Amino acid sequence: MKNLLPGIFVVSVSISMAAASAVAGERPQKAAIASASPLATEAGMEILEAGGNAFDAAVAVSATLGVTEPYGSGIGGGGFWLLHRAHDGFKVMVDGREVAPAAATRDMYLDEDGEPVPRLSVDGPLAAGIPGAPAGWVHLATKYGRLPLSVSLAPAIRLARDGFPATHHMVRNLAYKKELMNRWPAAAEVFYRDGEPPREGELIVQPDLARTLTLLAEQGIDGFYRGDVARKLVEGTRAAGGIWTLDDLASYRVKEREPVVGHYRGTRIVSAPPPSSGGVLIVNALNILAGFELPAMKETTQKHLVIEAMRRAYRDRAEFLGDPDFVDVPMDRLLHPFYAAGQRAGIRMDKATPSDTLPGVVRQVMAGGTQTTHFSVLDREGNRVGGTMSINFWFGSGFMPPGTGVLLNNEMDDFSVKPGVPNGYELVGGDANEIAPGKRMLSSMTPTFLESEDGLAILGTPGGSRIISMVLLGSLARIHDGASATEMVALPRYHHQYLPDAVFFEEQALDGEVRGALESMGHVLRASGRNYGNLQAITWDYETGRIDAAADPRAEGLGLER
Hints:
The chain has 562 residues and is of the alpha+beta class.
């Protein structure tokens, strides 16, 4: 096996012995995995039982999710993997985020009048960034795992080659996207039958994807980013209007980044740094809330203050955050308690703060979407991974280059296509997140560890712009109430993201009395009309030794402890 790991770029790493490194060096009594697909969870357990560690299992789970849950992630997308190595406390985030092709330009999705062209940054190969997922898998396996990449990828290869039964969720999502995906024969041949979705239980077989995964397993980086697969990817995208080149693929590099770290009420929060906005927003919001005695307050006041913290954290996302290799992100300021104290000073206890009174950008309205995936892994040695991967919207761009089996992402929409104009998740952005060749687009993916003297939690979720608020609510439940993984994933959700200036909520999250009270304070409430998110969590309580792995009951995932 040659050239498995060329040109890995190390930005910075962190070695720390957290308070949560298990009392007296104890190890978990069980391994645990929670993911959005039962087949992916089982694949990870298969690798652990074959002698792999959490990092090997992360490769197996990531790749299998890409096969069995192609509407959320896959080899044509990217991701972030937050790692903790038990024997020395080393922590790092592996950044496998997609990057803009070299031919990308700042205004590539604007018309001659300077306005965004509808759907151009969303549908088809022009919407696709250069994938980072396969490079991330190689990096995890060769630098942190103990098994050959070919072993860790074997479950995904098997499921792609032999097929798996279409789930209810899969069939429903294919029905939703059939008009887009039937535009291009390669994707339609895999996922549709005469233009229609398969029946529930019918096998989904992906022979081209199995071959691509096999080449990756055998050749490492070269199996995807060079050679026959790379040629087919470039020829396919360019024939359909894309701008990829062979050099775009050959020059892709994984990066290692130091996690964002904060503290709240005796808990150490370890989360994703830029180009994810998640960790910065989580720590900033908790710093704001640290000035209030939330547990002693009535429910309406608690929710009001959490909403106001969300509002201010998301405002900073729009103003400051982007790829740190291209822009100067003021991390020290955004994470400092003094900065949070200034934000807190503008919060009224009896009244909502209109978002347009905070400094920021003016937006226009655009529709939203919610796809990504997350998994959490803890092995018996105490190694752990929180992995969040995405191809952006359902089935990404909908485009598959012929002969590859690779469904391409549409992550270019995560850039700020035009300052002040929201992306598909209604998130606004400015110059910090503008398009540039080789740049990573800003993300909301938020894999997170919560570490205290009492225990540990590993959590994360899909949900587009709502990822960060879901992780925040789960973290508050864990820290304030000692919530288990099962309780965290089932928690009703509410969300505010600065713009649009409204609180979105699941039906169970706000009862009638609380809704009335919040509205009387000036909050605009919008029922989501459906449940959202797919939180996957693991908790480990040191005193009892109990480990709980739980998948969100809103979807089809599986949590296992063995």
